[in-house]
Amino acid sequence: MCYNVALFRANELMTSNTPQGAIFFTLLLMFPEIANGKKAHKALKPPSDSMDNKEFAKTRKRLKKTQKELASLLGISLKAVCSYEQGWRSIPGHVERQLIFLLARKIYRLKECKNCWDIRNCPDEKKLNCPAWEFDSGKFCWFTTGTLCENTPHKTWSEKILMCKKCVIMKKLM
Q1: Please, is 30 exposed, middle or buried when counting C-beta atoms within 10 Å of its C-beta (0-12, 13-18, 19+)?
Q2: What pTM value is reported for the model?
Q3: Same domain, yes or no, for 104 and 59?
Q4: Do 7 and 37 reside in the same domain of the chain?
């Protein structure tokens, strides 16, 4: 369907006072690629700083779990796991966090790991103000929002995980 025809049909729907017409018209104005043959789920997919579908599938395989087993572990539907792996849905922060946590538990059981403050040689003053030190979670510093790795606590998971993915602690894990 060409863009002009789609715009005309959306306008017809909108003037008929249907909510679907108004939604379609708005989406068409925002995402003209929908009318130009691209699949809607690709066109509407928001930019994401979180785990991508390939990373999600790779982590599931490292855990040696089927999609059904992983869905059960994460408390989500099998359909959601399939959608994440196909790239049809972006992976929510809480799912990413739990998946990395499961991977960390499996890996840390197999090898001896040091705490983050020892690896990064954090001074005592910094350690005393850091939640990773306070909660004795030096092997799971990436899990705790508010750590002082870059001397500034991050307020959201998405900000934090971006920084953590560049860190030596997370690189050992992934």
Answers
A1: exposed
A2: 0.58
A3: yes
A4: yes
